[in-house]
Specification:
- This protein is α+β, with helices and mostly antiparallel strands.
- It has three domains: about 50 residues, no CATH class; about 110 residues, Tetrahydropterin Synthase, Chain A; about 50 residues, no CATH class.
- The protein has eight helices and nine strands.
- The strands form three sheets. Strands 6, 7, 8 and 9 form a four-stranded antiparallel beta sheet that branches. The chain has a three-stranded antiparallel beta sheet with strand order 3-2-5, covered by helices on one side.
- A hairpin with a 5-residue loop joins β7 and β8.
- α3 crosses α5.
- The longest helix has about 70 residues.
- Belongs to the band 7/mec-2 family. HflC subfamily.
- This is Protein HflC.
- It is a single-pass membrane protein.
- GO terms for molecular function: peptidase activity.
């Protein structure tokens, strides 16, 4: 190979080496920072292909996506001097690359530890200002919204990160307090159950008394109507009897005597009367004489 060809190969090789050391790519999911001898010279590098001075400048890349910080359950004290165990998580992302690098040296785990301390501090302050009921259910959403806003201001200034959301996954009570709360809740539910049963018995007794009253009224009205109908029937029967008697008194007396005989003379009965009693007149004479 001629000296000129050798020189050309060397120049091309050096060019490729310089290009490989100087060209770099920043993806859309990344944030990058350019350093020169340890000092930040460019902290706002857009995604795409870029150039840096080989051997003089270095580029550090960071994840620009939304990241999740899952904190360990921690114990906090409420305003009512009750301990609660809170398990929470936070959503965050890098907002200011320069501030993030200065605060954490670009170490994501260090950033997570710093953010976890701030989250726990914020939770401690917010929970300490609220009662147990407010922490568990009453004001949890308000607590999370207020904590997120306060953390976001602090972390953007100190850590260069933006806190998008802080949420509580679970609020538990210590075992000894849980048993006390369980017993109190059980007693409260038992009291409510007794109250409901008492109200049910009261309603049942009222319903039963009303039913008895209606029954008495219905029976009285039925008895009244029956007696009225019976009286009307007796009156009609008496009217018919009187009419029949007036039409033929002798026949009426005869039929009544026959009916009396039928009802009086039963098998094995013994009747003691005078033979000349008026009761036997139709047995002696068909004319009743």
């Amino acid at each position: 190979m001629s000296p000129k060809a050798m020189l050309a190969v060397i120049v091309i090789g050096l060019g490729l080496l310089v290009a490989s050391q100087g060209l770099y790519v920043v993806n859309e999911t990344e944030r990058a920072i350019k350093l020169q001898f340890g000092e930040v010279v460019d902290a706002d590098i857009a995604p795409g292909l870029h150039w840096k001075s080989p051997l003089v400048q270095t580029v550090k890349r960071f994840d620009a996506r939304i990241l999740t910080l899952d904190t360990n359950p921690s114990r906090f004290l409420t305003a009512g001097k009750k301990y609660v165990i809170v398990d929470s998580f936070a959503k965050w992302r890098i907002k200011n690359v320069r501030a993030f690098y200065k605060a954490t040296s670009g170490d994501r785990f260090q950033a997570s530890n710093l953010l976890a301390n701030l989250v726990n501090k914020g939770l401690r302050d917010e929970i300490a200002a609220r009662s147990l009921h407010e922490v568990v259910s009453g004001e949890r959403d308000e607590l999370m919204t207020k904590l997120t806003a306060a953390l976001n201001l602090e972390t953007q200034e100190d850590l260069g990160i933006e806190v998008l959301d802080v949420r509580v996954k679970a609020v538990d009570l210590p075992e000894d307090l849980s048993m006390s709360v369980y017993n109190r809740m059980s007693a409260e539910r038992e009291r409510e159950a007794r109250e409901h049963r008492s109200q049910g018995r009261e309603v049942a007794e009222g319903t039963e008394a009303e039913a008895d009253r209606k029954k008495t009224v219905i029976e009285a009205e039925a008895y009244r109507d029956a007696e009225r109908t019976k009286g009307e029937g007796d009156a009609e029967a008496a009217r018919i009897y009187a009419k029949a008697y007036n039409k033929d008194p002798e026949f009426y007396a005869f039929t009544r005597s026959l009916k009396a005989y039928e009802e009086t003379f039963k098998p094995n009965d013994v009747i003691m009367l005078k033979p000349d009693s008026d009761f036997f007149r139709y047995m002696k004479d068909a004319q009743g004489k």
